[in-house]
Amino acid sequence: MENHVKYQAAAYAKSADTLYVNQYMPTTVNWEEKGISVKQETKFPSEHSKLTVKGSGKFTMKLRVPYWATEGFEVKVNGETICTNPEVSTYVEINRTWKDGDVVEIHMPYTLHLDKTPDKVDGSTVASIMYGPMVMVAKDERDSYTPMNWYTVALSDNLEDSISVVTGADSEQVPHLTTNGLQFYPMYDAYNYRYHAYVKVEENTSVVNKDELQALVDAVTTGDRIPSKDDYTEEQWETLQQAIKDAQAVLKDPDATQTDVYNAYKALQAALEDTAENPEPEKPDKEDLQNAVDHAIPDSEKDQYTKDTWDAYQQALDHAKDVLKDENATEEDIANALNELNKAKDALKKADDTQKPGTGGDGQQGNGGNDGKPGAGNSGAGNDGQTGGSGSAAGTVKTGDSANIMLWVLLLGASVLGCFTVLRRQRRQK
Fold it and tell me: Which residues touch 82 (CB under 8 Å, ≥6 apart)?
């Protein structure tokens, strides 16, 4: 358990013409002599792994078959199955001329098994419960700690009859097993609670532990947890009564498995806690968001808007659709999505807005061309409100220039006329 960081050193091995795949973990191995690399993609824990070959050449790939893979070890090469149930603790050999992009897929179902210690404690077998390659530890939920306070579990020879897989290997949640009223989780998850890596095992093909279920049935029928009909709706009360009857039937059934016992216990516990005072929370209302999406601006009208504002609107619309699909979306998620969509819609800018005169700071219309030439300048609502032209010879003409010219012409004409009048009077006086 102290050498997890060294797994990568043993993930692959090689000989002259053979590549050994020993560990199923996300890795990439570079085989320099062959000019080959193999990329392995998988999660942990997972019952699946994929290897992709980069490069080409002839060599043998050997895939290790774990000792616990007793329910099959399926191997596919480029989608074609080449084996399904090889002998455990051996290697599956694939000898071929590999091409760039060849894919090997592996499916290895996790199995339940025991890893027993060589010695016994007080005459009892001691073992760890394993799920595939993982040690599963019993969570200690007792209020006080007592040294060497062993948990004892009764297990049948067929562990699937005694142990329930609540959450499997490929789930997004941590794997979870239950047996004998105990909850088991991978050792890597046991960092914030007391746990037992080993338990005492009573192995018997006919032993199924019903103590926890019996205790719960006793509590709700004759003990201190007798439910009151006033605390439940009519439907909830009927469900609870049926759960009690089902649990009692399992207790009487000599052929009931540990899985049957666990399922009956969970059903009764859930029905007991589902009271009228604690109804299931209602899912957030998505009606307004759905209405906004249903009345979204169609894609056929996108040319009416500028590209950047339309792209922002589409991004907000896509996010809103994702929230509608998300069954776990909260009220806050829904409100935020609706707000973003409305804001993006309000911010849409018509494409022809850029052709309208601006309202710049100096009251002039759109920007003209550079260097005093009209050229293909920025038209529309520019910073200084200038209007661009498309001429090729004249300089930039601004609003009000023609009026200024006429004023200067009139002033000049008045001055000339005044001078002419003065000269004429002087001549008459002479």
Answer: 75, 76, 92, 94
Tell me the pTM. Answer: 0.51
Query: What dihedral do alpha carbons 293, 294, 297, 299 form, nearest 10°?
Result: 90
Dist. CA 185–CA 192, nearest whole Å = 12
C-alpha span between 140 and 143 (Å, rounded): 9
Q: Which string of b and e fits 121-136 if b means at least 16 CB within 10 Å?
A: eeeebbbbbbbbbbbb
Tokens of residue 101, six digits: 């992009």
pLDDT digit string, tens, across residues 73-104:
999 999 999 999 999 999 999 999 999 999 99
pLDDT of residue 277: 64
Element spanning 14, H or E:
strand 12-14
- In b/e form, how buried is each residue of 277-316, taking b as 16+ CB within 10 angstroms? eeeeeeeeebeebeebbeeeeeeeebeebbeebbebbeeb
pLDDT at 210 (0 to 100): 84
Average pLDDT over residues 165-179: 92
Strand pairing category for 134-139 and 124-131: antiparallel
Helix (H) or strand (E) holding 235: helix 234-252
Cα→Cα distances 126→150, 154, 202, Å: 10, 12, 9
